[in-house]
Amino acid sequence: MIKDESVEKVIDESQQGTPLALQHNVKNTRKLYIESYGCQMNFSDSEIVASILAKEGFNTTELLEEADLVLVNTCSIREKAEQTVRKRLEKFNAVKKVNPGMKVGVLGCMAERLKSKFLEEEKIVDMVVGPDAYKDLPNLIQEIDEGRNAVNVILSKDETYGDVAPVRLNSNGVTAFVSITRGCDNMCTFCVVPFTRGRERSRNPQSILEEVNDLWERGFREVTLLGQNVDSYLWYGGGLKKDFEKASEMQKATSVNFAKLLELVAQAQPKMRIRFSTSNPQDMTLDVIESMAKYDNICKYIHLPVQSGSNRILQAMNRLHTREEYFELIDNIRKIIPDCAISQDMITGFPTETEEDHQDTLSLMEYVKYDFGFMFAYSERPGTLAERKMDDDVPEETKKRRLREIIDLQQKHGLFRTQEHVGRVEEVLIEGPSKKSDAHWMGRNSQNTVVVFPKEQYQVGDFVNVKINECTSATLIGEAVGYSKNN
Ligand code: SAH
Ligand code: F3S
What 3-state class would DSSP assign to 26? Predict the structure, then answer.
């Protein structure tokens, strides 16, 4: 290698006599510690934030104690999620005592919900930034650097961060999130999201494809397209979903809906696994299921939250479908994609929920026999329609008991579903070592079920055919029988 001494010399001379701090360029030495709570979208947003701040000279650190800036990306979905964040702030407070220069900012849904009240309630907080204001972070940080508190919680009609290349945080190098819509227009009466994340808007498909292509180039093998309500994705040149009616004929003719977007992504990277979350039953159309069936690389798994099996409760929740319509959707999924996994979110103890409503939920679960489930006791959220118009009248013990019953039933159904895989050979994408054993890999099949098997010669990121020998209610255990055709 030929050394260019003249360049080295110039660098040396330029640094002579310069104070050490400037030599390193102070800006470049700042450390960002970022922590995320709640939904996948928050984790994805933190990667956008890290990217915006990397341009400002912030490097991420995993050591809270050495951070110059601590950001916490918060969740408001249930009261418990907010309490968790408040507990974390106490910890940050303790660290700040030994590192007084440390600044603390809150991002995400709690920031949006509480706005500047946060600064009064939690003295440790220097900065409050809502989910649509992350591009303003450089200005806000300058404010706090100058000793003032800073707040930006303005919600946007068109911000999708489509032009920001996320910095992948805590990445396994194999799977990544790609956000495709922001906000939600559904106004489920229990849900705080429409208030904290604003109106629904979709991201330019071109920028989605560019991100997916770039991920493939960098070795990623699976993407999850993210949105509060992905089936409602609609690109017609920008703007809010609710303004689509006002678009020109040309814009309407060239618009891209979710089924089309799935096809575009599947075709752009035929070996990349594609997942998506979340589907709201009222917005999921047959063309989406048909797109899934058409492409091998679109994973056969739908997260399809229903929240309740009772028509009366569904209506009170402003979920715009009935139990019967949900069954019809399930039947269509099973007909078009026989091996499709389906998962649920459920809420027990929504206002006025009776024992009979609860039984309806159990019988709906019996009909579907979900592969997985995420179940919660109802938590009243300030500002939602349910909080304003309904009494949180189901006693806490009743909510908990019903929750236990649906969790137990889900566990039974989980086992029923995992048993269906035993004896089959399934393609698994290796994500990393098994948590329980260093001699085993952990990956997932197309249906999103975790599969564990001996490592042998295989590597992270490989697509491997695994013979499934045993199962628990959530995990498949098997042995590799060779690389899959995708490898
Ligand atoms: N966009 C998704 C859900 C977003 S919130 C959808 O279409 O359903 C994730 C889950 O949290 C919801 O599905 C719901 O089951 C639960 N959840 C939301 N608000 C809640 C509340 N106030 N109390 C308890 N659970 C809630
Ligand atoms: Fe919440 Fe319903 Fe939207 S659960 S995120 S308002 S689809």
Answer: helix
Domains of the chain by start residue, with CATH: 30-152 (3.40.50.12160), 300-420 (3.30.750.200), 425-483 (2.40.50.140)
* Closest-lying ligand 1 atom to the alpha carbon of residue 379: 23
DSSP line for 423-456:
T-EEEEEEEEE-SS-TTEEEEE-TT--EEEEE-T
d(CA 374, CA 369): 14
Q: Residue 75 annotated as binding?
A: yes
Q: Report pLDDT digits (tens) over 139-191.
A: 999 999 999 999 999 999 999 999 999 999 999 999 999 999 999 999 999 99
| Confidence band of 43 (pLDDT split at 50, 70, 90) | very high
Nearest to 393 by CA among 450, 448, 339, 349: 349
Categorise residue 339: left if φ over 0, alpha if ψ from -120 to 50, beta otherwise.
Answer: alpha
What does the pLDDT read at residue 28? 60
Extended beta strands in 135-184, E state: 150-152, 175-179, 181-182
Global pTM reads 0.92
**Ligand 1 contact, 305 CB (< 6 A):** yes
Q: Cα–Cα distance between 441 and 457 in angstroms, integer?
A: 11
Q: Is the CB of 75 under 6 A from ligand 1?
A: no
- Residue 92: exposed, middle, or buried by beta-carbon count in 10 A (0-12, 13-18, 19+)? buried
> Is 471 annotated for ligand binding?
no
Give yes or no for a contact between 63 and 70, defined as CB atoms under 8 angstroms apart: no
Q: Side chain identity at 313, as an amino acid letter?
A: I
